[in-house]
Design the sequence.
């Protein structure tokens, strides 16, 4: 997952070796934008020299604002974007070298955006008069409390529970950064909560736990669950995340969704369905290779098999996962038994022989681009590891008919934000108690369906995260599926207006 944020699909927890140093991107990005305050002499050509210096360093000037003007010169804020942090420093050095220019201060705009955090609590009701206070709080609130004590099912309707999600992490597998702890994970969880609000009008809150003990995590979430309508597990390392999710699903009467698994799987399946439409192949016929047997890879394989895929191989640090490999963990052995009954062995390039589809959720640069030539004609390639894909998506186009990745600077970004806001909107609207494979499949179908036949092409297999049709389509599909599954939703009170004698 992992968009994330962008909320994008996270690098799999079974990353092979140390993360590769990300190559400088082909374009500059707002995530590496800076504002440089500088003074320039009175030469009218100074502004031109400033813009030229940034451009010569490969940066992009997005704004030049005059802060102060005097007869002997100007104070100017120059805002520009870079490809990475080192590139930002190169641009500043270039500005320092401009004659007549003095750099005073450099501000990283991404860090400025995070000052004080990205969330706040706001009241949905006015508190302007004595009457307002008496209804919102004491004594009026007591009547509502007593009513809920008598009718617990109404808690979702009369409190924030009906529109609130807990975003829970232990900080053990944050983006592609690894085990950085709960405090360092907070900006990502805040970002996830912001995405919930922006795309689905859901009030989400980051819950960063200072423990990686499975029992403690499960018990903690169980204790706070009464205040939430759903649980979004985030950035928890495999295999621990599997047990946590399974135990919480068994204990709680609200849906538990691990976005690194299920969000990634939904969007990957949606993208694959449309990619196969482009190359005129059927899911049940194609040979699929998945790199990465951790949380994301396992969920992708599971959902593809539920959708009708029949020919899948999974590769990880042990090679192609085979059920007779004694080195495999129980989770990987189960995955091997579901995908490799023929007990094929080999490395990743061997798995690609004759393959129609490659999906990567492992680690950067694990696959030489030349190995893609071993795939079948009209191949589909999804290298989704972050921050560095398994194979260069640009060079992959030499060998593949359709390429998608987790990168926002290239076409076909597979981004979890296409899934989780709509999924939870649908779950909350349906008062769902659980989330099922049927709901995940419905979400994938809905995302794929947003791209019409007229729009579909090799560079547009997945809609933009800003397409307003996505969240509503996913929410409607998930809610409809939930309402048609016996026992999946909480009962709805027959009383339209709750009154208490």
Sequence:
């Amino acid at each position: 997952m992992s968009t994330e944020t962008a909320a994008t699909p996270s690098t799999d927890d079974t990353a092979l070796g140390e993360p590769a140093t990300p190559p400088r991107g082909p374009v500059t990005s707002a995530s590496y934008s800076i504002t440089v305050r500088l003074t320039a002499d009175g030469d009218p050509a100074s502004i031109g020299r400033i813009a030229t210096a940034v451009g010569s360093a490969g940066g992009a000037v997005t704004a030049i604002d005059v802060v102060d003007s005097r007869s002997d010169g100007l104070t100017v804020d120059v805002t520009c974007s870079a490809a990475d942090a080192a590139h930002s420093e190169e641009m500043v050095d270039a500005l320092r070298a401009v004659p007549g220019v003095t750099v005073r201060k450099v501000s990283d705009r991404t860090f400025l955006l995070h000052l004080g955090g990205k969330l706040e609590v706001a009241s949905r009701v006015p508190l302007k008069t004595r009457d307002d206070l008496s209804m919102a709080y004491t004594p009026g609130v007591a009547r509502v409390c007593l009513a809920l004590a008598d009718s617990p099912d109404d808690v979702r309707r009369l409190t924030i529970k009906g529109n609130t999600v807990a975003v829970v992490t232990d900080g053990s597998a944050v983006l592609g950064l690894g085990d950085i702890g709960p405090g360092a994970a907070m900006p990502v969880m805040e970002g996830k909560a912001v995405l919930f609000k922006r795309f689905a009008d859901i009030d989400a809150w980051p819950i960063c736990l200072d423990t990686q003990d499975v029992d403690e995590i499960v018990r903690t979430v169980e204790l706070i669950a009464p205040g939430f309508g759903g649980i979004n597990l985030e950035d928890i390392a495999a295999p621990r995340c599997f047990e946590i999710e399974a135990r919480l699903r068994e204990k709680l009467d609200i849906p538990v969704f691990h976005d690194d698994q299920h969000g990634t799987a939904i969007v990957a399946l949606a993208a694959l369905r449309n990619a196969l439409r482009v190359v005129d192949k059927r899911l049940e016929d194609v040979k699929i290779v998945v790199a990465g047997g951790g949380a994301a890879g396992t969920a992708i394989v599971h959902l593809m098999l539920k959708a009708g895929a029949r020919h899948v191989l999974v590769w990880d640090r042990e090679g192609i996962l085979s059920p007779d490999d004694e080195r495999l963990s129980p989770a990987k052995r189960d995955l091997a038994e579901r995908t490799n009954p023929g007990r094929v062995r080999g490395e990743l390039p061997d798995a690609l022989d004759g393959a129609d589809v490659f999906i990567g959720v492992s680690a950067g640069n694990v696959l030489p681009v030349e190995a893609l030539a071993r795939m079948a004609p009209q191949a589909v390639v999804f290298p989704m590891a972050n921050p560095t894909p398994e194979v260069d998506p640009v060079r992959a186009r030499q060998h593949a008919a359709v390429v998608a990745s987790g990168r926002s600077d290239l076409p076909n970004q597979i981004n979890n934000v296409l899934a989780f806001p709509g999924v939870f909107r649908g779950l909350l609207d349906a008062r769902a108690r659980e989330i099922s494979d049927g709901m995940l499949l419905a979400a994938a179908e809905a995302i794929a369906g947003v791209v019409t036949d007229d729009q579909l092409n090799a560079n547009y297999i997945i809609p933009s995260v800003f397409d307003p049709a996505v969240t509503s389509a996913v929410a409607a599909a998930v809610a409809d599926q939930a309402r048609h599954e016996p026992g999946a939703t909480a009962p709805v009170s027959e009383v339209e207006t709750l009154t208490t004698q």
